[in-house]
Task: inverse folding
């Protein structure tokens, strides 16, 4: 092996940021995992590549046509990069042609509830259905009709969390493990319960016993998240303090129903719709409609908010509530209602 080729091979990992454009979707930092094609573009000849990746050499082949440019085991990030490179990672029509999904994607999002596999960890990768790739090493290929919109995580293209969650749950049969994953996704704000349920439904997982048993916990996590966002809205929007989580009724009468926030002096109530699409949602919606009709008949303004609105437009929702509070001065005072903490 000539000195020039050897020097180039030894320095290749320091040159990648300068010589390789970030068009492969994996970021522009110097990389220690490259394909044979990328190495050829850097001037590494087949002979140099074969010499350095021989048994006991400083490099090694980790997947077909994908090489690790240092001795020892690859890191978790290097394994993911290698999987994407093997899957033919490049941009197409402005987007990546392969996405990490499943437990590997959740691990990149720092999920604490990802279940450690019994054997070598598998990296699941989504590719367009027309690709004719096979599983290789620790990479499991999933061909799909349409790739979801990618989420960039540290320069690595990943499936959206709800999709990665469904792909992970598909390989589980432990109710507690499923429950931890679903609730962590919602509690930490990765996604809302509706998007989780939508992906579970699309994957045909809702009828599985371990998933069905975990749905009440998902619903409860959605409710807690809604309450926290509502508290944040009131605080950041500098709204007057309401009575939180109360039941309303007429004096001496039966309960009218529960509201998430109530300003008695203004006759304004907020109800958050935290439904996730479960079988009882139609009945829950009917209860919400009846409550609204009853309260508005008594002169109470009911502001209906959703998890999505509280997540995506918090300031706007605070303005909606503030407008209702201000407008109360021009309305006929609402009927007196008894307020009982839930």
Result:
């Amino acid at each position: 092996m000539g000195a020039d080729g050897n020097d180039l091979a030894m320095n290749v990992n320091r040159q990648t940021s300068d010589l390789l454009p970030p068009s492969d979707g994996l970021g522009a930092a110097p990389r220690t995992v490259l394909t044979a094609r990328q190495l050829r573009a850097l001037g590494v000849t087949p002979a140099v590549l074969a010499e350095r990746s021989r048994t006991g050499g400083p490099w090694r082949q980790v997947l077909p046509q994908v090489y690790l440019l240092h001795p020892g085991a690859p890191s978790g990030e290097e394994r993911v990069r290698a999987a994407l490179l093997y899957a033919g990672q490049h941009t197409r029509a402005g987007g990546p042609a392969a996405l990490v999904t499943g437990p590997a994607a959740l691990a990149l999002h720092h999920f604490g509830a990802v279940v450690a596999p019994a054997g070598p960890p598998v990296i699941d990768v989504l590719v367009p259905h027309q690709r004719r790739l096979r599983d290789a090493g620790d990479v499991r290929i999933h061909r799909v009709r349409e790739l979801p919109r990618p989420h960039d995580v540290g320069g690595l293209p990943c499936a959206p969390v709800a999709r990665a969650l469904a792909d992970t749950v598909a390989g589980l049969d432990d109710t507690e493990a499923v429950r931890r994953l679903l609730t962590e996704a919602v509690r930490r704000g990765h996604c809302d319960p509706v998007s989780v349920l939508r992906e579970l439904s699309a994957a045909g997982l809702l009828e599985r016993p371990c998933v069905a048993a975990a749905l009440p916990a998902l619903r409860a996590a959605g409710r807690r998240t809604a309450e926290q966002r509502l508290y944040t809205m009131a605080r950041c929007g500098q709204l007057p303090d309401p009575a939180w989580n109360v039941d309303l009724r007429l004096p001496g009468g039966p309960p009218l129903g529960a509201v998430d926030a109530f300003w008695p002096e203004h006759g304004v109530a907020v109800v958050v719709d935290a439904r996730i699409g479960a079988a009882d949602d139609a009945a829950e919606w009917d209860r919400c409609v009846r409550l609204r009709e009853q309260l508005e008949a008594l002169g109470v303004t009911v502001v209906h908010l959703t998890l999505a609105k509280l997540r995506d437009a918090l300031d706007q929702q605070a303005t909606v509530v503030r407008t209702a509070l201000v407008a109360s001065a021009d309305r006929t005072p609402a009927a007196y209602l008894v307020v009982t903490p839930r």
Observations:
- The mean pLDDT is 85.
- Residues 176 and 332 are 52 Å apart (CA to CA).
- The two ends are 79 Å apart (CA to CA).
- The chain has two domains: 3-159, 229-341.
